[in-house]
């Protein structure tokens, strides 16, 4: 049975103590908040823990090891992390032997300060890392033992863009791509384990490969993965408008396994705000890119991200964002209020001078606008038959997604997990579709 080092000497400052063997009944619990990269890393950390002899448990109260995978991209996420950490103080008092660890973007180089703020935590380790006290594995290379039909695959870590509001480059570092062969071999093994769809992940997937020998790009990687037998679908996110190439757009249009869904964050519909955000493109360039995508990929679904209440954003500038969303009519819009993040350029250079009530009001306007747009877009699918990759059950119904990312529910007593099912849509809403099985096949 592998052993766990209780208090190692470690680059992030923990003290060294004797190693403790893992008990046969050792249980772990991972709490995850934030982006898909966090979810992927939690899944792989869980798989690695199981290889070490741990078993999962659904509650922190039962666990011998509790890991919090944190997010601090926005203040609301950071507040949830801190609340969770505070809630675990009582668990540590009741069970002093439980090991508490924190990873994700809360963890920076100031570990001593974190330890002072949260003395109940035994270990802090950097996002995407696997610390010495667990054997120092390459976490990105640890595959889930029993993956879901649709699984995340990290392909590039970090970001070089330094958008003025974003803390990610400060916590995840500069861009570092994984080799094409490494990713391809990994996806082949995942398919062997039952995976039908992979979503390639990166803070900016359009930068993939620029740091590798021969400089392969995302289009090259997609082309390679498209040849894998048994793999039905490929997705990827997130793109950056200034880095998305014509070659990539044409590759998406050409390859049969690459889904017709592109996440392309706009963040604002006003050029002065985009400049202050250091986004590197104008509204006109963004609009032209959307036109190009739609002309080359008929029926493509588009998702975007928007920040409202950026410092000094006027009512007119906010209205420009609403106008852009009304004009371009995205399938999905993820909207958030601006919150200053320590270390970022915006937090140093701009006063957070939009009242919270105003920010929330603007967020509500965008949410209402997008609900109406999504309802109209999805209504066009009424009576149509769509292909759904079935990912599981929820409240007694099977659920899965179309190639364009639409969430679909249907009733059936047969086992459809991991199958590609033909569903005739009988009811639509802004958020999901419901239908009836028409036929099914398994790839």
Outline the structure in words:
Helix 6 (218-225) packs parallel to helix 7 (246-254) and helix 10 (315-328) packs parallel to helix 12 (356-379). By secondary structure, the chain is α/β, with parallel strands linked by helices. The protein has a five-stranded parallel β-sheet with strand order 4-3-5-6-7, with helices on both faces. Helix 2 links the parallel strand 5 (65-70) and strand 6. The protein has twelve helices and 20 strands. Helices cover 32% and strands 23% of the residues.
Give me a quick take on this structure.
With 443 residues, the protein is an alpha/beta fold. It is 32% helix and 23% strand. Strand 6 (99-104), helix 3 (111-117) and strand 7 form a beta-alpha-beta unit.
Alpha carbon gap, first and last residue:
38 Å
Radius of gyration: 23 Å
Q: Total helix count?
A: 12
**Oligomeric nature of the chains:** single chain
Shape: globular
Number of strands: 20
Supply the helix-strand structural class: alpha/beta
Task: Report on the biggest sheet.
Answer: 5 strands, parallel
Mean pLDDT: 91
Q: Helical content, roughly?
A: 25-40%
């Amino acid at each position: 049975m592998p052993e766990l080092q209780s208090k190692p000497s470690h680059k992030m400052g923990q003290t060294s103590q004797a190693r403790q063997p893992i008990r046969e009944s050792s249980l772990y619990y991972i709490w995850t908040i934030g982006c898909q990269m966090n979810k992927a890393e939690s899944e792989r950390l869980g798989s690695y823990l199981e290889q070490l002899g741990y078993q999962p448990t659904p509650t922190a109260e039962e666990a011998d090891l509790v890991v919090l995978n944190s997010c601090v991209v926005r203040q609301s996420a950071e507040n949830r992390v801190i609340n969770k950490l505070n809630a675990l103080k009582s668990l540590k008092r009741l069970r002093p032997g439980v090991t508490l660890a924190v990873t994700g973007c809360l963890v920076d180089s100031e570990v001593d300060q974190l330890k002072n703020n949260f003395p109940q935590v035994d270990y802090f380790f950097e996002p995407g890392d696997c610390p010495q006290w667990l054997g120092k594995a390459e976490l990105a290379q640890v595959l889930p033992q029993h993956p879901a039909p649709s699984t995340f695959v990290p392909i590039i870590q970090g970001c070089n863009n330094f958008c003025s509001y974003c803390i990610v480059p400060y916590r995840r570092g500069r861009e570092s791509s994984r080799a094409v062969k490494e990713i391809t071999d990994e996806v082949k093994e995942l398919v062997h384990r039952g995976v039908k769809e992979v979503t390639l992940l990166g803070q900016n997937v359009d930068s993939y490969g620029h740091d590798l020998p021969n400089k392969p790009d995302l289009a090259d990687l997609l082309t390679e993965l498209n040849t894998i037998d048994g793999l039905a679908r490929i997705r990827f996110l997130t793109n950056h408008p200034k880095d998305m190439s014509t070659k990539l757009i044409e590759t998406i249009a050409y390859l049969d396994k690459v889904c017709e869904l592109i996440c392309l964050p706009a963040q604002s519909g006003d050029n002065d705000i985009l400049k202050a955000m250091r986004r590197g493109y104008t509204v006109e360039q963004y609009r032209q890119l959307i036109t190009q995508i739609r002309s080359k990929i008929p029926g493509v679904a588009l998702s975007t991200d928007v920040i409202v209440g950026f410092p000094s954003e006027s009512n007119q500038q906010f209205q420009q964002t609403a106008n852009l969303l009304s004009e371009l009519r995205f399938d999905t819009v993820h909207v958030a209020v601006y919150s200053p993040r320590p270390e970022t350029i915006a937090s140093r250079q701009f006063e957070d001078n939009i009242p919270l009530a105003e920010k929330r009001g603007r967020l509500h306007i965008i949410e209402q606008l997008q609900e109406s747009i999504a309802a109209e877009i999805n209504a066009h699918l009424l009576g149509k038959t769509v292909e759904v990759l079935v990912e599981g059950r929820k409240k007694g119904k099977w659920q899965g997604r179309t190639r364009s990312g639409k969430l679909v529910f249907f009733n059936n007593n047969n086992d459809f997990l991991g199958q590609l099912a033909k569903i005739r849509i009988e009811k639509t809403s802004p958020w999901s579709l419901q239908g009836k099985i028409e036929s099914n096949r398994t790839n």
